[in-house]
Every structure is written in structure tokens, then in C-alpha cells.
Amino acid sequence: MLVSLTVGKVDAGVTVLLTPDKRLIEFPSILLPPDISSGSIVDITVSRNTASETAAELSFRRLQDQIYASFGADRPLAPQLRCRNATQTSVVLEWDPIHLATADLVGLALFRNNQKAGNIPRPLAMHSTKISGLAVDTEYVFHLVLRTTAGTYTSDKVAVRTHKMTDLSGITITTGIMPGATREALSQAVERIGAKVVEGVRIDTTHFVTTEGRGVQWEKAVEMNIPVVRPEWVEACEKNGRILGVTKFYLDAVRPPVDERPTAPQTQKELPEQPKVETPVAESSAPALVAPQSGEVSAAQRKEEGGRSDEDEESSSSEEESEAADKVLRPSVDEQKVRADERDAQGLAARPKPTVEDEDDQDDDEDDNNEEKPPAAEKGTRSPEEQRRITDDRLKRVHAEVAKQEREIGLARRWAEANKAKKEADRAIKRAAAVAKQARQIELARQWVEADRAKKEADRAKERQIELARQWDEADRAKKEADRAVKRAAERARLERENELIGQSIQDLIVGGAWRRDGVRMNLLMDRRLEIHELLEEM
């Protein structure tokens, strides 16, 4: 559609155009030819661009399909939890690698009997955990809770019953260096008691059997605080028909003479402390009673000083058997000393211990850490770019005010011209009054019609001014919203960058092995990363 318009007043921002029926149209001056002036006639063609409209609609639909294919076609899955092994006092759980789809991980927690036992560290890399310090012949129910930015997912509940003292099927043995005949006899004894032998030290390994304290597997067992015993321990368990304590069968323990009964007490020299290293297996921190060793030492001293009667030997032998049975339910003295020294030296456990007793303390520590963290740094001084943007905004407001004043001046000028025309019409009416009354009435009516039209035009101009002011207010609000969106985007970019740096720091600690020594920093980094994930989720 072609429209011919007459140029009225030309301003810096807006040009007034007149239609053939004397209607006013405000048009942006930048869209008109540069050489126009008042009185020029311009032709404007207006048409609907259906091709561009169709292309834009197709592009929008393709974008919707891409968004759905990227974020809506897949979703996270609940963890698949199962029991890998169980003993008299511990349970090893494992699960499939977690599937997050396009969501972000918030945390993975283990629950025991519907109570939170602890958080799983590095859930993307760890797929198993060990819970120690459980009661004998007791049923426990475990399940995992996966928290992501797409929601919370709970695994199926797994019921596990710890073994009785006479059930030796939960024993998992890793063998070290030993003679071939001893290895063969050990394999037969393990098969008879229903236990199993695995290759290499794993998270479910309960005992490391060897005759020599050397080798890579032996070092790994010592590092993981796995009891290192002699093959005689398996034979003793088979002979007694129940699991026995490992104190007398340590690799460095004093062996009883051949001519004496195996159950007779012997003097046990002080065992060397095992290396104080962090164990990668999550263990329970429940306190365990320590069996007194004074019975063994006193019995050995009495025997060295001259011996006792057969009745005394039999009574001390029975005491030793009862003590060995009790030690199965609690760690040895040396192991407890090593773990106590580790906690005193480092101030934390080797790994988060998924037990109910430690959960309250752990939550309190996390709350204290969150309270002690300083707030994020506020916005600093303005950059040159921000200062330049503020100056541009001020110039725009000044230009808008100038344009508004010019429109008000033009309106006042039109009002003055209308008043002048009215006065001239009045004088013309007075001069024509003597000619004819009818002519005077016709002329007066015509002048009144023109005045009414001018008044309506003025009213419409005022309405346009009000509408323009409203549009300016909307534009200002839109600009403020855009500024807030830019600030939110900048804050989100900063948080994402900080999250990447924290992830790199955690990766460096894990690769370099420093997380074993600097566990406090590792926990602080993990807590900060969870806080950043929560802030990003709120955005």
C-alpha cells in the first residue's frame, strides 16, 4: 500500500507528517530522506512480509525442537543400590554409575534405617562404600538419595543382615607372598569354611593373609588399615568353627612354641604401629570397647616365672578364647591407637563416615563453616565501560527532555495561532454583520467548525504526548530490567567460573594425592561447590 504524506515540522528525532485529510502522523526523522523540509511530499509503502514471517516461525520451531532434544528428552535416573558383601560387623554396598542426563549433581547421601548416615564423597567417581561398626546378626535397611538440579531421586531399599559369629562366608581374603604349599593349604581351608579369595586388595577385602611383609598388595592393605595376618588365622577359625580375633595372628606377633597348645597364652611383644595413612574406605566412628590385654601378659609372666598347674593353664586358655571371640566385635588396640593418632594429628576422619552418630556433628560443622564464610565481594568501582554507559543514559534522558519541551512549545504555538484565528474570525463576523444576518450566521458556523476541529486536533496531540510519555516510561523500565539481567548474567558467569576453579582445585588434590593430607581444604572446597550450585539453582 502506497501512502503520500506532506512533511510538516521537521525535528531532530520526530517529523510531523500530514495526510490528505489533514491528520497528523509523527514519524522518525532518521527513516526519511536527508534532504526533506517542510512542505515536501514523501511516499511510504507499507506491506506484510509473509516470507520473513514464515521463516521466523520455522526458525522458532526448530529452536524449540533443539531445546526439547537437549533438555527434555532425557532425565536423571534413581541409583541402583545392592549389597556386595557382608560380615559380622560391616557391610559393603555398591551401585551403578549415576545417570544425570543434562542436570547438575547436588549431592548423594546414604541412609541407614531411614536415618541419614552420611554423604558419599566424589559420587561421580565412587561407586561403593563400606559401613563398619555394625551389630552382629542384625538386619539393616539402606537406601541412597540422589539430589540434582532436576529433582531428588531415591533408590530402592536394600535389606542386609550381618552374619553370625559362626558364619564365615563373609570373609574375603587377599593373599600376599607365601610358599606354594602354604598357599595351597590356605585355598583348601578357605574353601572348607565357605570364605572367598580375591585378586588384589579391594574395598570388600576383610583380611590380608601373607607370611612376608612386603609387596605392592601388602603396602595397599596397610594403607587401607586391613588386618595383615598369618595363614594360621584361617586354620584357627576353621578349628574353632567361628571367627576369631586377629591380634595373636598379626604378621609381627609372637608365635607360640610348637610343643605347647595353640590356645595357651604367650607373651606378646609390643606390635609396631602401622603407618598413619588415610583409608579410602568409609568406616563407622562408633566407639568400641577395648579388651584388656593384662590377662595375656600376666599369664605369660606366670609361665616364665615357673609355670602353673594344668588347671590354671586350662582356665587361662578358656579366658583367651572368650577374649578372642569378643575382639571380633571391636577393633584391636593397635588399630584403635593408629586411628586415634590420625584423628588427633589431622582433626578429621580419613573419609566421611556414613554413620548416624557422626551425622549430627558433621551437619553442625558444615553449618559453622557456612556461617564463617565471608559474603561474596560486593561490586567494586565502576569500570570505564559502565561509566560510559551511565553517561550515555544521561544524554538520552537530556535529549528526551529537550524533545518533550519542543513538543510543548509547538503545542503552545498552535494554541496561540488558534486563538489568533478565533479573534480574526470574531472581527470578520463583526464586519460582516452589517451585510447580512444570514451570511454572518453561516460564517460564524463555519468558523466554529474550524475551531472545533482545531480543538480536537489539539486534544489528539495531547493524547499522543501522553502516549509517548508512557512509551518512554516503558522503555525506561525495560532498560532497567535489561541492566538487572546483565548483572545477573555477570554474577552467574562469576559463580560458574569459581565453580570451575574449585573443580580444578579438587581434581588437582585428588590427582596429586594431597587430599589425604589436606582433608579440611577438600571439605571446604566441596561445601563451597555445593553452595555455588544452590546459588545457580536459585538464579
UniProtKB/TrEMBL annotation:
<dbReference type="Pfam" id="PF00533">
    <property type="entry name" value="BRCT"/>
</dbReference>
<dbReference type="InterPro" id="IPR031669">
    <property type="entry name" value="Fn3_2"/>
</dbReference>
<dbReference type="InterPro" id="IPR001357">
    <property type="entry name" value="BRCT_dom"/>
</dbReference>
<dbReference type="GO" id="GO:0046983">
    <property type="term" value="F:protein dimerization activity"/>
</dbReference>
<dbReference type="GO" id="GO:0006893">
    <property type="term" value="P:Golgi to plasma membrane transport"/>
</dbReference>
<feature type="region of interest" description="Disordered">
    <location>
        <begin position="257"/>
        <end position="402"/>
    </location>
</feature>
<dbReference type="InterPro" id="IPR052827">
    <property type="entry name" value="CHS_Export/Cell_Fusion_Reg"/>
</dbReference>
<dbReference type="GO" id="GO:0005802">
    <property type="term" value="C:trans-Golgi network"/>
</dbReference>
<dbReference type="InterPro" id="IPR036420">
    <property type="entry name" value="BRCT_dom_sf"/>
</dbReference>
<feature type="compositionally biased region" description="Acidic residues">
    <location>
        <begin position="357"/>
        <end position="370"/>
    </location>
</feature>
<dbReference type="InterPro" id="IPR031673">
    <property type="entry name" value="Chs5_N"/>
</dbReference>
<dbReference type="InterPro" id="IPR036116">
    <property type="entry name" value="FN3_sf"/>
</dbReference>
<dbReference type="GO" id="GO:0034044">
    <property type="term" value="C:exomer complex"/>
</dbReference>
<dbReference type="GO" id="GO:0000747">
    <property type="term" value="P:conjugation with cellular fusion"/>
</dbReference>
<feature type="compositionally biased region" description="Acidic residues">
    <location>
        <begin position="310"/>
        <end position="323"/>
    </location>
</feature>
<feature type="compositionally biased region" description="Basic and acidic residues">
    <location>
        <begin position="324"/>
        <end position="345"/>
    </location>
</feature>
<dbReference type="InterPro" id="IPR013783">
    <property type="entry name" value="Ig-like_fold"/>
</dbReference>
<dbReference type="InterPro" id="IPR003961">
    <property type="entry name" value="FN3_dom"/>
</dbReference>
<feature type="compositionally biased region" description="Basic and acidic residues">
    <location>
        <begin position="371"/>
        <end position="402"/>
    </location>
</feature>
<feature type="coiled-coil region">
    <location>
        <begin position="418"/>
        <end position="499"/>
    </location>
</feature>
<dbReference type="Pfam" id="PF16892">
    <property type="entry name" value="CHS5_N"/>
</dbReference>
<dbReference type="Pfam" id="PF16893">
    <property type="entry name" value="fn3_2"/>
</dbReference>
<feature type="domain" description="BRCT">
    <location>
        <begin position="163"/>
        <end position="251"/>
    </location>
</feature>
<feature type="domain" description="Fibronectin type-III">
    <location>
        <begin position="75"/>
        <end position="169"/>
    </location>
</feature>
<keyword id="KW-0175">Coiled coil</keyword>
<protein>
    <recommendedName>
        <fullName>BRCT domain-containing protein</fullName>
    </recommendedName>
</protein>
